[in-house]
Amino acid sequence: MEIDVGTRLKQVREAAGLSQRELARRAGVTNGTISLIEQNRNSPSVASLRKVLQGVPMTLSEFFSYEIPEEEKIVFRANELFEIASDLHGDSKGRISFRQVGDAGKHSLQILHEVYEPGSDTGRTMLQHASVEGGVVVSGRFELTVGDQKYIMGPGDSYLFDSRQPHRFRNPFDEPCVIVSACTPPYL
Fold first, then answer.
1. Distance of CA 186 to CAs 61, 102, 181, Å?
2. Domains along the chain with CATH numbers
């Protein structure tokens, strides 16, 4: 695997909160040297790279094993949501789809686009988990049970509750129900 020294140096420098000028000053090299290396217009010798890295400070070993952080993704298009559960039937014949926004494993928040087809049900065995969850009904209707309370929810209605309480989602109606929900910490 070939390593892009210029890109890596720029990421290491930025992660350390240094400008090109400040890194050059600390390393005792010219600002142009740092710029040329980062643009891959100058391939530094091992000795030169070691000198530059002393300005961070970082060893050559740390530099070459440095994991480049993935660029933080902010926007997720409809086709980028990934299905984490579908065709769940519980005790019914209706389809349930949960499409997740991003990677909930990297965050303390899980956001879902949920679709409950007519007849769908999360099951007679009530759900319970150590989270807080909430959501907004986008379209359709569904029945929410939390503890011994049942609620019929429609477009624009929302919910928020401690998920340690037994709960169940069910669509006994003739049209699909779409919900956008959030859960923290992630459950699914």
1. 36, 12, 11
2. 5-65 (1.10.260.40), 78-184 (2.60.120.10)
